[in-house]
Structures are given as structure tokens and as C-alpha cells.
């Protein structure tokens, strides 16, 4: 009949109750309790690592976009606008770095260094590129780190912190870019400067290549001085650096030797062909 | 600062880092030597007569751990105490090895799993990062997994030496250890790879227990189990 209902399985076999009974009869052993706490500890660690990886990726992407923007400086009539926009972008990157610093409070930074290193290197590349365009000089690691000291921006952050701190000073977070990350970022910077050199000639700017040549030589000398005393990743960059320097020096040579022969309006063509060749070498579309 | 001045300063920092690592390497070498001595000593339990000498071997091993504690004290002084993970790679291997050896000694003495805190005490280091040179949880777990492999081997050799009850106890211990490890969410790193080996240890011990039970040797063991300890 349709009146009654079928007795469901769990009415006869109350699993929930049974499990509870079992747990009361067999409480977790000391070993199992330990491993439960290990699970929590590892999960917490991994979660933090993942959050830092995500932040590092954001930092990388936004830094790369800043670099692309700054390359447009050479051909843009309103360079000041581009510089201001780049500053806005880099401020956004620094806000991400602040989040990294907050995640690392009370932690050993080196435990999570591999998670954030790529982002920081890209940031060094972007900020040093901007600095070069503004000042024609190399930003120091100290200068970079000065910009990575953060204070609480709004009341919300302050009230969250004052419960932990006993002094009335504004809370400070900071992140220090390591010498190695700085060097790797500067090594990558030379690649961008090489591109800057080639494109600046295409724009009829025949002074920048020679400035760049001198600047790159200084950096190359610096890396030569360091040689193999650094970690392997630094020595590895020396090869690419040398290639970038060679391309810039060749551009200067071409300008010097053939610059007087070629009418200015055709100079761009000479170097655009060369740029095509270089781009093909590097596998760019 | 000129570019060359900057690089000179950086080179100074890199050189300093290299010097510290050189010092650490020397200390680690000394620790590795002591670890080898303890391992050679404890390996003896796998042989027939070795079983009778277990208490003596454990005692001797504990004496060696005194040397380890002294060497650890020396290692701690070679680098800034808040930069443990900067140099962690240098001593990671020997520390895992020492965890295994401590766990092995404790198992031979009491047939229990040594806790993280107890290992830290044996090695003369801290259990928490905040308190100084500490035992990282992953190094502890790696050492414990090595113990599992060692006990799988011990189960086999126990039977050969005529001890039919020890494998049964090892089996219970390893199965519980396996349950514990199953709780962990591991990433695809070296710890995960080592954990993957645990199932082969479990299987090996199961086979030993099976071989004993189908021949009725395990019953003989539970009846006649004497003071093997």
C-alpha cells in the first residue's frame, strides 16, 4: 500500500551512533593524535606557501606589464605620462609585496623564498628599468629595499595590529630583496636595455645606444668581478649578459661606421632589419 | 654609489655567505661521521647473535648521541640563529639520518615511535622553530619513514634468527604508522616520494607475517615468546 513507507536501511543500522561508540571505545592513539597535528601543521605551511606563490605570480605579471609600458617611452611624445603610469603600476606591485611581507611576519623568510623569488626578481627588473630611464643610472639594492618598508595605511590595519603590539608606533612590515635576487633581476634588466637600444635607434635616437653601451659595460664588469663566487644561477646569467652587451656594441659600431653614410630617414630601416634578425634568434613571433 | 662600488659590496655579501657555508660544511661532516658510527653499531642487530645484544647496543648508541649533541652545539654557532632555513639544505640529510637512528634506538628499547620532542632532546636541538635550531617536521617524518624500511628488514631477519614474535609486533607498529601517514596531505616533494616507499615496507612485513601464520609459527611465537628484549 501507499500508506506506509519503507523502512530505510539506516533505521536498522544506526551508523552514526555506531561510529560514535567505536570512537569512545577506541580513542585515537597517541601516534594517531600526533599525526593529526602533523596534518594540520603541514596543511597550514602548504597553504601559506600557495598564497605566496599566487602573490609572486601577480607581482611577476604586473612587473612585466610595467616593463612593456616603459618600452613605449622611447617612441611616445608624452614620456612623462608613461613614467607616471609606470609609477602607478609599480605602486600596485609594491602593495602586493606588502602582502607578502605580512604573510611572512613571524616566519623565517628563507623557508618560503623559492615561492617569492621569481616575482621579486621581476620587480627588480621593472623598478631598475624605470630608474634607468629617469636617471640613466643603476638603482642600488638599498634604494629598492627602502621602498619596501610599509606602514599601516588605514585604521582597520592598525586596530588589527594594536592588540598584538604594546608600543604606540605605527606597525611596520618590510621585505628585503636578497643580493642574489637583486643580481638576477639586474642581469635580466640588461636584456631589456639591449631591446631599448635597438628600438631607440629605430626612432632616430643615436645617443642612447652609446649611453647604454657604456652602462651595460659597467654592469658586465660588475658581474665579471663577482665571477663564480655567487650561486650557480648568477654565473649562468653571465652568458646571456655577454650576448646582450655584444648586440649593443654591434649596434654602436654600425651607427659609427655606417651612420654617416646612410641618410637619417633610412637609419630606421637598417636597424629594423637587424631587429627582425635578433627577434628571430630569440624565437619571438 | 657607482656601479662598481655596488658590485663590490654585493661581492662582499656573497663571499661572506660562502664563508659561512664552508664552516657549516665542516660541522656537518663531523656529524655525518658520528651518524655513520651509530649506524654501523645498530646494524649489528640484524644478525643472529645481535638480538641478544640489543640493550647493550642501545646504550652505546646513546653514548654516541652525546657526541652528536656536542657537535650540534658547535653547528649552531656557525650562522645567525634566525636564518635556519637559509642554510637548512646543508644539514637536512644528516639530520634525517640522525632522526632515523634515534627512532631506531627508541624502537629497540621500547617498541614505540619516538616523538618529535623526544628526538629533539636526544639530538640536543629544539622542537619549535621559535626557540632556535629546531627539527623541521618534514625531516622528522623522513627519518621515521627510514625506520619503517629498517623494521621491514628486521622482521625478515628476526624470522631467520628464530624470533617469530617480533615480526608480529613490527607488523602492528608499521600498520599504525601507515594509518598515521595516510592522514597527511603531502605535496609532490621528496617526502612524498619517500612515503610512497612505505607501502612496500608494509607489504614485505605482511608477507613475513603470512609466511609465519600459514606454518603455524605465529602461534608457537605467542605461546613461547620469551624475554627477547
TrEMBL record, chain A:
Subcellular location: Cytoplasm, Perinuclear region; Golgi apparatus; Nucleus
Record: residues binding Mg(2+): 125, 192
Keywords assigned by UniProt, alphabetized: Cytoplasm, Developmental protein, Differentiation, DNA-binding, Golgi apparatus, Isopeptide bond, Magnesium, Metal-binding, Nucleus, Spermatogenesis, Ubl conjugation
Glycyl lysine isopeptide (Lys-Gly) (interchain with G-Cter in SUMO2) cross-link, chain position(s): 274
A Pfam family hit: Translin
Gene3D superfamilies given in the database record: Translin, domain 1, Translin, domain 2
Primary location: cytoplasm
Region (Disordered): 1-28
Biased composition range(s): Basic residues: 1-10
A single BP term in Gene Ontology: cell differentiation
GO cellular component, one term: perinuclear region of cytoplasm
Domain of life of the source: Eukaryota
GO molecular function: metal ion binding; sequence-specific DNA binding
Biased composition (Basic and acidic residues): 11-24
InterPro entries associated with the record: Translin_C, Translin_fam, Translin_N, Translin_sf
Family note: Belongs to the translin family.
The protein's assembly and partners: Ring-shaped heterooctamer of six TSN and two TSNAX subunits. Interacts with GOLGA3, TSNAXIP1, SUN1 and AKAP9. Interacts with the homodimeric form of C1D following gamma-radiation. Interacts with TSN and C1D in a mutually exclusive manner.
PANTHER family registered for this protein in UniProt: TRANSLIN AND TRANSLIN ASSOCIATED PROTEIN X
Function statement: Acts in combination with TSN as an endonuclease involved in the activation of the RNA-induced silencing complex (RISC). Possible role in spermatogenesis.
Protein name: Translin-associated protein X
Gene: Tsnax
From TrEMBL, chain B:
Predominant subcellular localization, coarse grouping: cytoplasm
Protein name: Translin
Subunit structure comment from the entry: Ring-shaped heterooctamer of six TSN and two TSNAX subunits, DNA/RNA binding occurs inside the ring.
Gene Ontology annotations of biological process type: RNA metabolic process
Keyword entries, A-Z: Coiled coil, Cytoplasm, DNA-binding, Endonuclease, Hydrolase, Magnesium, Metal-binding, Nuclease, Nucleus, RNA-binding
A Gene Ontology molecular function term of the record: sequence-specific DNA binding
Organism of origin: Bombycilla garrulus (Bohemian waxwing)
Function: DNA-binding protein that specifically recognizes consensus sequences at the breakpoint junctions in chromosomal translocations, mostly involving immunoglobulin (Ig)/T-cell receptor gene segments. Seems to recognize single-stranded DNA ends generated by staggered breaks occurring at recombination hot spots. Exhibits both single-stranded and double-stranded endoribonuclease activity. May act as an activator of RNA-induced silencing complex (RISC) by facilitating endonucleolytic cleavage of the siRNA passenger strand.
Coiled-coil residue spans: 14-41
Residue positions binding Mg(2+): 150
GO cellular component: cytoplasm; nucleus
Compartments it resides in: Cytoplasm; Nucleus
Record-linked SUPFAM superfamilies: Translin (SSF74784)
UniProt similarity note: Belongs to the translin family.
CDD domains: Translin
